[in-house]
């Protein structure tokens, strides 16, 4: 597996090797020994999948209780995936990185616990699969506004994205309850 560092320490692009022939292709997306060798978590507690339509924006989500590291992959379609460092004690506090993930390249994004996560669907539909290092904790879930000026995320969309009522009510970075 090829590892590509991003501008945020700990957030990594992972490119699995594909083995293709006239029948199609095969790839290994997760292997405990490989991840251990890369210093990445090997214990995941939950797999999640979502399907969304073009211009749907989900996020920016995080948990203050049972924070989750996430391994993100678009298994159908294309997304713009964002990780924002919201750890107050981090030198990268308030910085974000965005990468395109799509089913064609099969690249994945590793986002450590302590980061807010969100994505925008760029294709007609997208199925996003992610592994989480801890269980979802509804009482600990928090949301930062997708368009918070303090983060100033350059979402690749003209106009206003489609967001949930919960995401519309997200907090500003300056007033949000954040991990240390």
Summary, kept brief:
With 180 residues, the protein is mainly β.
Structural notes for this entry:
By secondary structure, the protein is mostly beta strands. The protein has one domain (2-17, 40-168): Sandwich (Jelly Rolls), CATH 2.60.120.10. It has helices at residues 32-37, 165-168, and strands at residues 2-5, 12-15, 18-21, 24-27, 46-53, 57-63, 70-76, 78-85, 96-102, 108-111, 115-121, 125-132, 141-143. The strands form 3 sheets. It has a 6-stranded antiparallel β-sheet with strand order 1-2-10-7-12-5, with no helix packed on it. The protein has a 5-stranded antiparallel β-sheet with strand order 9-8-11-6-13, with no helix packed on it. Strand 3 and strand 4 (24-27) form a beta hairpin. The longest helix has 6 residues, at 32-37. The chain is globular and about 55 Å long. The model has no long low-confidence stretch (mean pLDDT 95).
Shape: globular
State the total count of DSSP E strands. Answer: 13
In DSSP terms (H or I, runs of 4 or more residues), the helix count works out at 2
Number of domains: 1
Note the main sheet.
6 strands, antiparallel
The first-to-last residue Cα distance is 31 Å
**Cα-atom Rg, whole angstroms?**
16 Å
- The CATH architecture is Sandwich
Order of helices and strands: EEEEHEEEEEEEEEH
Q: What is the CATH H-level superfamily? A: Jelly Rolls
CATH class type: Mainly Beta
Strand order of the biggest β-sheet? 1-2-10-7-12-5
Helix and strand arrangement:
Elements: E1 2-5, E2 12-15, E3 18-21, E4 24-27, H1 32-37, E5 46-53, E6 57-63, E7 70-76, E8 78-85, E9 96-102, E10 108-111, E11 115-121, E12 125-132, E13 141-143, H2 165-168
Antiparallel strand pairs: 1-2, 2-10, 3-4, 5-12, 6-11, 6-13, 7-10, 7-12, 8-9, 8-11
